[in-house]
Design a protein that fits this description.
The complex is a heterodimer. By secondary structure, chain A is mainly α. Chain A has 22 helices and no strands. In chain A, helix 1 runs parallel beside helix 6 (129-155) and helix 14 packs antiparallel against helix 16. The longest helix of chain A is centred in the N-terminal third of the chain and has 37 residues, at 10-46. Chain B is an alpha/beta fold. Chain B has a domain at 224-281: Alpha-Beta Plaits (2-Layer Sandwich), CATH 3.30.70. In chain B, helix 3 packs parallel to helix 5 (135-147). The longest helix of chain B has 16 residues, at 165-180. The chains are: A mainly alpha, B alpha/beta. Chain A binds chain B through residues 1-5, 8-9, 12-13, 16, 20, 114-116, 118-127, 267-268, 270, 274-275, 534, and chain B through 15-16, 49, 52-56, 70-75, 77-78, 80, 82, 84, 86-90, 92-93, 101-102, 104-107, 131-132, 142, 155.
Amino acid sequence: MRTAEPWTATGRLFRLNLRLDRVRILVWVLALAGTVYGTVLALQETFPDGEARQARAALLDNPSAVMMTGPAFGADDYTLGAMTANELSLSVLVAAAVMSILLASRHVRAEEESGRLEVVRALPVGRFAPAAAALGAVAAADAAVGAGIAAGLLAGGLGGADAVAWGLATALTGLVFGAVAAVTAQLTEHSRAASGMAMAVLGAAFLVRGVGDVIEPSGSWLSWLSPIAWAQQTRLYVDLRWWPLALSAALAAVLLASAVVLAQRRDLGAGLRQARPGRASAGPSLLSTTGVARRLLRGTFAGWTAGLVLFGLAFGSLADSLEGSIADLPSLGDWLAVDLGALTESFAAATLSYLALGVVAFAVSGVLRLRGEEEDGRAGLVLTAGVSRVRWMLGWLAVVGVEAVLALVLAGAALGAGVTATTGDARWTGELTLAALAYLPAVLAVAGLAAALVGLVPRAAGLSWAVVAYAVFVAWFGQLLDLPGWARNLSPVQLTPLVPAEGWAAAPLVGLTAAGLSLVAAAAAGFGRRDLIG
Amino acid sequence: MDTPVIEARGLVKTFGPTAALDGFDLTVPAGRVAGFLGPNGSGKSTAIRVLLGLLRADAGTARVLGLDAWADAVQIHRRTAYVPGDTSLWPGLTGGEIIDLLTGIRGGRRRRRRRDELIERFELDPTKKARSYSKGNRQKVALVAALSAQAELYVLDEPTSGLDPLMEAVFTDEVRRLSDEGSTVLLSSHILAEVEKLCDTVTIIRAGRDVESGTLAQLRHLTRSAVTATTTGDPARLAAVEGLHHLVHDDGRLAFDVDDARIPEVLRVLADLGVQNLTVAPPSLEELFLRHYGDRSAEQGCGHDAGRGAGHGAEASR
């Protein structure tokens, strides 16, 4: 049955969404525009002439670099523009996609989950208006990010059509993943699950693009299956072409239309997937102090671990193309006494540090859930039921800790299994599984910091994500931008020795462990003393 | 009589295996305050959501203000104000901002003075962010936003669940005022006293079906009054009266229930017996309620939360 006036009040709700998100969107836009501008300047300074850039280009032809950057266009004439586009575009695209996913699931699903949508829908508001206003806000945020990026490039001296193309590519890629989140939001009742599914799609797009480009440096058929590749295939600052962006626009439109159609097939508040009835009484595993934490973190843990294992396997199985990349570059072999074993080792070590970043992010999100429990008043329920605060917090942190160890071990084992499968050398599996544990102190330190914020300055707990973002930034750009050593070493992941390529240096590991443990102690002490703050 | 403001026929709504509504009928004539009574999980909120076009019924028809509840939802909402049972607000906005936001989306004439008057009457601090509001204060925000609108129909889903008795009195006042102005009100509740105090008609819903509906007088007619008396005579003659139940006789003090239709007869007998004092308590809604839910609790072998309380009512269950 058709409904009358389906779009009424879209404009008002759109303005409300922008009002609710103005700070959030502004932070994203400024952070991304600033990163682009700063990176252009830093690259200019670090690689002042064509010779320096050409030397950098020669290092790009290995799978690890291709996975973390983009298709190598213009490598034979590596201009500043080509270099910026190649080194920076992937991270900008991923950031815009993450922003869009978070905003979309917030406006589409969280509003519905919390019951606010019911209040709004009972007003004279068209049936499509809330969703249209939500996606409109995502599109506006993406447009702002795109404009910010173009402005950052222009300010850095890389203006012109390519800057506009980059901005547009970023905005459209963001919108594609925002639309993915709009679709996943129809499938499930919970905004956390909706954004998790959309993030999994983003992870898959990242992997597919990477593996596709490793197969063929300017993009193979596989690359073209990933929306991230479409943005990069515009050949920014090399040989600009616009048509791949039509693919992004078309996919976004199709996804948005499917979200609307799916939304009509379900009830307000429900997902397309019917919720199954759960247990009537608590199983034994739930009935302990740590049982609640294990249960609540189950989905997060499973999602992160599955993602990390997949990444580990995919990266690991690229190890054999290392041999190929050396064969392509005989001069490199003349230059350095390259031993394939050592090359594989350093590739695996670098990959392991990327995987460790994932575990750090998981641990921080696990610790911050403790704060969420407090904010929503559920921690109060548990604490007044007779659990001491310190026990509640330490129990929770212990669960996060054990799961982080498991995630590290599994990620390391998956990477090792991938390398073993392609090189046929069985020692890698054991070695990389063990090596993954070297990152445990780093995880402990960052998670400890998050816990300390929760325990001592709960309102600032969200700042823990800034530490994670910084660690990712250092891993991605630290070397490229030639950041000073002390700045890089602010990231605990960077402080960790690159095992197995480097030895197990004791000092940083012991230092990080000590720091982590003291932070946890401070967290428990603080949490035991302060007010519960909703 | 004009068309009823709410007219629902044979509504069915299932969620997976559970039928939240199962052949539900409801009629609310214009200008009435209609009570909508049922315990938790009986389908009250589902019925209200169907009437507001938020959910689509699997079968049956729902017409509100003469319009189709699903297809013409926007038009209906322009003339309807709604307070949900559990109000969730935007944590970063203040109460005042949210009230203006909600009335702004509604459009129409702004009733600034009415808004301020309601804020004052409900003792709401409109400058606080919604995250710091208690349940009662969130409820007040929704109430002020709804009551300051000029609507033909007000749909209030357990609106007093977070309010203290003083605020409940303010609420009662405000609903009377709406009724005086000629608006129609649908008030869902599991608080019997509230419905009894405010409503002209009552519909009782149980397991997704309307099990009884009518004016309070009509419903009372179906039930019994509780009588207590002190007499000097022999009460044996009373036992012969038809429609008299649970007679207890203790040293001149009498207590029994009687079908309302038999009250004149009982009074004659009591007068003959030399009655010294007499109370005839009309049936409370509680009794009506228990008659409809009492058997369910018996089926399940356990009591439930709604409407249990006054001891004498429990005997009325069959």
